[in-house]
């Protein structure tokens, strides 16, 4: 199982609404994530907007591609894009750059 961690930046003035949206993620989005191979997926948000994502999957690129192929992900990303600081205009799911793991304790 591959462990993946990534960072994104939520606009600080939108963190409260971002939290609210994630308290009620669409059931079809949750189903799509599971079917695409996203497991043990967590998001952590600091008040200044730093977002840390963590997930486990067999193959991150395949799991990301599987989500990109879904209609529900296209709708979710379109709605969530306004929450993120993205200097190059990338959608949040395309801006995920996995961090290199340097230590893990089982």
UniProtKB/TrEMBL annotation:
It comes from the Bacteria. InterPro entries: Dimeric_a/b-barrel, Rham/fucose_mutarotase. It holds the Pfam family rhaM. This is L-rhamnose mutarotase. It comes from Streptomyces macrosporus.
